[in-house]
Design a protein that fits this description.
Elements lengths: L17 H12 L5 H8 L3 H13 L4 E6 L1 H4 L5 E7 L4 H9 L4 E8 L4 E5 L7 H8 L6 E14 L11 H8 L18 H12 L5 H8 L3 H13 L3 E6 L9 E9 L4 H8 L5 E7 L5 E7 L2 H12 L5 E15 L2 E4 L2 E5 L7
Helix pairs in contact: 2-3, 8-10, 9-10
Amino acid sequence: MTAAPTLQPSSRPAAMDETDLDIVAALQHAPRVPANALAEILDEPTSTITRRLNRLQRDRLVRVIGRFAWPLVTSGNPRQLWFRCTPGRARDVAVALKAIPEIQFLLLTTGSADIYADLFPLHGTDIDELLTRTIPSIPGVASTESQLVLESQRVGQSWRLQRLSSEQQAALQTYVVPVNRPPIGGLEDLSDVEVRIMAELGGNARISAAEAARQLGISNSSAYRGMQLLLGSGAVSPRVEVEPAAAGFPLNAIISLQLKPRSIATVLDELSTQKSARMVSMVTGKASVIYNGVFSGPAELAHFITEEIGALPGVQSMDTCVGLSVLRRYWMDRDGVLIGNQVEGLLRR
C-alpha cells in the first residue's frame, strides 16, 4: 500500500479573520472564481484578495482541490468503521490506519468508540482482506464495527459558511463550472493525458489550462480540452478544503440514530438541510442513519440534539461520539487545522 504523506508540526498558530472567512465562503460557492471577480463581489481590492488567498494556501489553511467522481475511483459503496482500542493505543492505531490509502476520513473520538473512519474501496482494493484481516490485526485494535453506506444524502462538499448575502451568492453562481456533458464511465475511457490532467486538478482545482500545460509538458489546447471534459462531465468537481475548526467550528460530532424504518427517508431529508451537516448517510447495522456534523461548541451541539434531533419522527435511540482530533479528511492528513497533501494512488486504471 502507498504510505500517506506526513505533516510537519507547525509552531505558528493559524488564524483566519473576517476577510479570510469571506473568501472561504465565496470559494465554497464558486471554487474557480477569478481573483478579480472575487474581489468585486466581496468589495475588496483585487490585491488584497490575491494576497489573502495566496497566504491561506501557502499556510495550508485552505486548499482548492478536485473531488473525483466516486465511480471513477471506487469499486463500491464506502464503509463506516468504528474502533475500540486497548487502553492507551488509540493514537498508535490511528497512525497505522493512516498508512492505508483507502481510509478517506479519520477521527479520534470519545464516547462509545475511540476511532471513527470512512473507508472507500478504491479500484483494485481487496475489501474483504482489509476488513477481515489487515485492519482487525493492527496492534491495539480491540474490536471493530463496519457499516455499509447505503445512501449519502449529503457530503462534505455541501457544507457552507453562512456569511454571504443572496446577491453575493447569485453573483458567484456565474462562475460555477457547469456540468453539461455525459458522465465518464471509467478511467479506461480517458487518455493518459486526460488522467494526468485529472490528477493535477485533484491537487489544485484552480489551475488554469496554461499552467497545467506547462506542468505536464503538453499543448495549451490539449490541456484546455482535457479540463473542459473533466470538469464538464463531473469527473472532477472543484471543492474547497478548510478544516472547520479554523473557521470557528471546532467541535466534530458523529450521531448515530436508530429509527423506525418508515421514518428513515424523512429523517434523511430533514437532516440534510441542517447547516452543521457534513455527511448524512443511511447505513447498515444497529443505527439507521449517521449524522456527521460540525459545531461552534457544546452549546450548539446541545441545542441541535434537544431541538433538532428531538423533533425528528421515529427516533428510537441515539449515540453521540465527539471528536478529539481530525487526522485525515478527504484523503488529506491534518496537523490541527493545517492541511497536508492528498494521498497518492487514488487514480487506478
